[in-house]
Amino acid sequence: MDIGIIGSSTVAQTLATKLLELGHSVMISSRDTSLAKDRGDRGTLPSAADFAAGQRELGRRAAAGSFAQAAAHGEIVVNATAGGHSLEALEAAGAENLAGKILVDVANALDFSRGMPPTLLYCNTDSLAERIQAAFPAARVVKALNTATATVMVDPSQFGEATTMFVAGNDQAARDWVRSELLEGWFGWRQVLDLGDLTAARGLEMWLPLWLRLMGATGTAAFNLRIVTAG
Amino acid sequence: MDIGIIGSSTVAQTLATKLLELGHSVMISSRDTSLAKDRGDRGTLPSAADFAAGQRELGRRAAAGSFAQAAAHGEIVVNATAGGHSLEALEAAGAENLAGKILVDVANALDFSRGMPPTLLYCNTDSLAERIQAAFPAARVVKALNTATATVMVDPSQFGEATTMFVAGNDQAARDWVRSELLEGWFGWRQVLDLGDLTAARGLEMWLPLWLRLMGATGTAAFNLRIVTAG
Predict the structure, then answer these.
(1) How far apart are the C-alpha atoms of A87 and A131, rounded to whole Å?
(2) What ipTM goes with this model?
(3) Model's pTM, two decimal places?
(4) Cα A229 to the chain's mean position, in Å?
(5) Does the beta-carbon distance from A206 to B204 stay under 8 Å?
(6) From CA A46, how far away is CA A67, in angstroms rounded?
(7) What's chain A look like in SS3?
(8) Contact call for B120 and A120, based on CB within 8 A
(9) CA–CA separation, B7 and A132 (whole Å)
(10) What are A5-46's pLDDT values in tens digits?
């Protein structure tokens, strides 16, 4: 399948790598594809162009382009930008390139302007996913994968037991596709809960403040939650 | 031990029943101890006085009193009121009756005034637990148990596998006591994560919107999360 990824972050490159391994044609994107990202004490992330060139050397169908090119490339589109910049990046991607397509929103809108720990830009009565859906009414927005770190998103088998992933969105067929194809089929998730319409994205995004404290308590970002019911 | 419970809700009566079974002396409390609570289509909850009388008939050390009497009774105090009324109820309990004591805050401040689903009264940069700590600086507030329904709080063994509970608070000794005695020792929790200071209560309280959607998706309130790490 042709997949467009809005963004060239760690999350974008991790998702792209997995999708490329599965044989899909993937374009990642950024404002300037030649620009590597400084990730502070975690070093430097390859530029979108360097990432795509490296993947092509492995025989994979990778490309790097503008936000609009990636959105146009994709039969489905993934928003993997930093949440505080998502609306702006999607505006550059173009409503016409998103119309009718499933738009998987994996972003979290963290606000670092008030210091650490970050807070949320949208909360309680609103969410990033709902803002995106309102700004792009013809896109079929599905919130998913934002509740885990990138290496967990694409490799849920690392835990040795099934852990839980979620989908939420206003379009049932879009939710079903993300659950059964992208999450269960391609990435191997074994417990995906359908939380209903996109207002559920509020709860999924409000998981982040707890997630950050759990990273502190467990000493790793490679964790996930498993929902357990009695009986 | 002598335990004071602020409130006479389902949560208060469920916690009290478990603590009484364990042999403790427990006083639950309400504005009017003779008043039964209408729980809509779930029927009527016994009044605080009737609950205590029923427990005494079983030979247990139960009492019902005012918020102030319950707080004075307790060597430790539990806030089991509806979160929107907690500050008012604790004001009635009296700062002098809370000073120096561990105050376990199990409440969630849900706002039903905007219709269903409820939203949170405090969120993102604030939490009910922090409000309580600020209003009662001599109390040793520990947030715990608010992430699960009452029957799960006191019976984590119902899942057949360890699920996760949390503590947060500014007083390390108080957090340690709640973790090792109340949660692990008395209630049988086997995976309790210490999330550090009381700002972690934000994440614990922001779990509620997701919890409510999970109740819808799983069809039960008798569920919990388990935190799973790799390797």
Answers:
(1) 8
(2) 0.95
(3) 0.96
(4) 27
(5) no
(6) 17
(7) CEEEEECCCHHHHHHHHHHHHCCCEEEEECCCCCCCEECHHHCEECCHHHHHHHHHHCCCCEEEECHHHHHHHCCEEEECCCHHHHHHHHHHHCHHHHCCCEEEECCCCEECCCCCCCEECCCCCCCHHHHHHHHCCCCEEEEECCCCCHHHHCCHHHHCCCCEEEEEECCHHHHHHHHHHHHHHHCCCCEEEECCCHHHHHHHHCHHHHHHHHHHHHCCCCEEEEEEECC
(8) no
(9) 42
(10) 999 999 999 999 999 999 999 999 999 888 887 777 677 899
In the DSSP assignment, the letter for residue B142 is: E
Interface residues from chain B to A (CB-CB < 8 Å): 114, 117, 119-120, 123-125, 158-159, 161, 163-164, 168, 193-196, 199-200, 202-204, 206-214, 216-218, 220, 222-231
Of B114, B204, B223, which has the smallest distance from its Cβ to A229's Cβ? B223
Best interface-test mutation with A: which of B111, B159, B206, B215 has the largest number of A CBs within 10 A? B206
Mean pLDDT of A155-163: 95
